[in-house]
Amino acid sequence: MSETTASAASAASAASLAPASSTSSAASAKSRTVVAESATTRGRRARIALRALQVLLALFYGVASALPKLIANSSAVESFDKIGWGSGAMYTIGALELAGAVGLLVPMLQSVAATALSALMVGAFVVQMTVFHGENAATPLILIIPLALIAWARRGQNAELLRVVRRRA
């Protein structure tokens, strides 16, 4: 039974238990129904907003961040040469970012992907501060905030992921 159906059913049962002659009880039940409906509407909107945020971050990591590294764009090559890591690290980080982007879209992997991308952003922040003297150090910090929100909001799926992993082991 969905949250909406459960809320409607409990509100309907509360309204049916109220005596017909008691207008204050009926008004109270109607008030509870409105509150229950607004809570589920608010929850639905929050889930939609969170999903939209995940899609936007997945697009960012897949297209704007991973793709230049994976196709060896000149700016990505130049950045990794300045760091001193070379093309192997560039391709590895690009692949990790692409995997994280895909993981943000897979329901069972969303929390793990957001956590892994947050860890990558901590590394990116350290590199920005040490190698690039803080030029774009705010970007990874800004990206950690929505990633942490996704990891926390989708944390319930970690138990399901663990069950699947344990079943296959």
Tell me the β content: under 5%
Distance, first to last CA: 32 Å
Q: Output mean pLDDT.
A: 84
Please summarize the sheet with the most strands: none
Quickly give the structural class. Answer: mainly alpha
Record field, number of beta strands: 0
Into which percent range does the helicity of residues fall? over 70%
User: Low-confidence runs (pLDDT<50, min 5 residues)?
Assistant: 1-36
Count every helix, treating DSSP H or I runs of 4 or more residues as helices.
7
Helix-strand string: HHHHHHH
Shape: globular
Rounded Rg: 23 Å
Your description of this structure?
This protein is an all-alpha fold and 169 residues long. Helices cover 84% and strands 0% of the residues. The chain contains seven helices and no strands. Helix 4 packs antiparallel against helix 5 (110-130) and helix 5 (110-130) packs antiparallel against helix 6. The longest helix is centred in the first third of the chain and has 48 residues, at 23-70. It is globular, with a radius of gyration of 23 Å. Mean pLDDT is 84; it is low at 1-36.
In short:
The chain has 169 residues and is mainly α. The protein has helices at 3-17, 23-70, 74-83, 86-105, 110-130, 138-153, 157-168.
Question: What's the topology here?
Answer:
Blueprint lengths: L2 H15 L5 H48 L3 H10 L2 H20 L4 H21 L7 H16 L3 H12 L1
Helix pairs in contact: 1-2, 2-4, 2-6, 3-4, 4-5, 5-6
